Amino acid sequence: QYQGLAGRSTNEVLQLYSAHSQQQKLQRSSVVIQMYGAIKKRLKRDLKSLHSFALELSKDFQRQSKTYLYQVLTAVQGIQLQNEAMQMFQIKAFDLEQSLQELTERYEKEKQKRRALHNSLVELRGNIRVHCRIRPLLPFDTAAGHLVSPDRQRNFSEVACAADDETVLVKCSRPGHASVNKTFQFERVYSASESQDTVFADVAPLLTSLLDGYNVCIMAYGQTGSGKTYTMLGPQPEENLMFAIEDESELGIIPRATQEVFRLISEKPPGSYWVEVSVVEVYNNEVFDLLAKDSCGKVFGVKRDVVTSREGKSDVPLLTHETVENASEFLRLVNKGLQLRVTHPTLVHAHSSRSHLVVTLTITTAVSEDNFGTPWEDEQTSQRLHKEASCTFPQKMRESKSTSSSRASSPAQLEATEKMKQVKTRLQLVDLAGSECVGMSGVTGAALRETSFINRSLSALADVLGAIAEQRSHVPYRNSKLTHLLQDSIGGDAKLLLMLCISPDQKYLTESMQSLGFGTRARQVQRGQVKKKNFPVLSKAK
Ligand code: ADP
Ligand code: MG
């Protein structure tokens, strides 16, 4: 072809060349068209399958979203149901809470009613009411107290506790024996965590009784260190017995009772009540007047006697009775007396728990002849009270400053009141010596004397209670100065509250059991009905 072309003209060549290119173009475009067709076909097919895939996918998506929507709806419905149920529960819980509260209130009311009924029963039977206070475990209970955590101490050594507010539970265990739980019932049991406030709340009604005409005696019994002084006075600085006035919440029964007595008096007509105080210590079977003053007016412990009056009552002749007008005057006075216990040569003893302390508040009120002897009082009591009531006021009251507003001390008033009878009621507050039976072996001299006197006086107390319980004709009050001094409160017509104090520690188990036994026996004593003295109708008492 190229040889043939060589002979031809350029034009022809050019023509041929363009014809050839066209031919080639034609050929190429037909191929392209063919390819295009194929691609188109393929594309169409792919598009179709893609379309159907997309269709399937969207159907699938719709299906799934429907399922999810359904699930969400069910969940929402479930939540709503749960919410409703929750609300129902809340309402139910609220209702239950309310009924529980109502029940608790009713229970508390019933309990109070029951306690009041029980108290009346105790009164009717002339029983001695016994409360028991268990003090907390203290660092000195364990030799290595400061090294042992409070929890471990509890596990290790706490054997006495309050099972409820009327039951003491004691775990008695002896080496080689299975431990035995013993329970003791009392009118009220205070656990270690109960405050001075709580203890006093149960004592306060007795003070209302005091102003209503009953004699009252509150006596703390227990071994040394069991909390008698803490309960009666409050926490004491080491070997310096006195009221720590700084912390009011820690004050014990004696200062609180005085405050309460003056509060109750402030609600009565002015000048209708007088309060006198005496402070006595019984040490080695001797009675010391802690408020007696020497010729220079300095307080000076003086030995006194206890005698039985013609009416068969116990009396301490020449005992100092100081008139007080308010609680702080009382505290100052009693503190001064208590100080004597550590400074006076005949009164010095190593520990305050070696003596019995008796603080007495005498409340005197004037009763007009007309008011004397109300119909409910029986003939015998009325006669007795007439005999008891003296026609003149004590010297102290005559001497009292005429500025005093709470006393009928102006001459005119005195003259008017002297025509009246007066009735006295007495509040005796007693912090007994430690009740532990210390062995005599190895003890000599003063300590031996102390111990034997304490043992004797406390066993005399137990004997007296035993004699009254058995209704023996002779009650041996005079076997000890303590029982002779407290004769009228123990066997007479006083409302008597025995406050048992218990150390919870294992090592005091024997002493605790002894105290609990003493309390249990005291509780069973029946003394004939507690008598009310004839009080005037002049009070605006509520
Ligand atoms: P007691 O007069 O029976 O010998 P105390 O009243 O002196 O005993 O008490 C011994 C110690 O125990 C004191 O340090 C006292 O403060 C403390 N104590 C007693 N009872 C309690 C109590 N309920 N709470 C706290 N401390 C107490
Ligand atoms: Mg004491």
TrEMBL record:
Keywords annotated in UniProt: ATP-binding, Coiled coil, Cytoplasm, Cytoskeleton, Motor protein, Nucleotide-binding
Gene Ontology BP terms: microtubule-based movement
Compartment(s) of residence: Cytoplasm, Cytoskeleton
PANTHER family attached to this UniProt entry: KINESIN FAMILY MEMBER 25, KINESIN-LIKE PROTEIN KLP-3
Stretches assigned to the Kinesin motor domain: 127-525
Annotated stretches, region: Disordered: 391-415
Residues reported to bind ATP: G222, Q223, T224, G225, S226, G227, K228, T229
Coiled coil: 86-127
Family listed: Belongs to the TRAFAC class myosin-kinesin ATPase superfamily. Kinesin family.
GO molecular function, one term: ATP binding
Full protein name: KIF25 protein
High-level lineage: Eukaryota, Metazoa, Chordata, Craniata, Vertebrata
CC terms in the record's Gene Ontology section: microtubule cytoskeleton
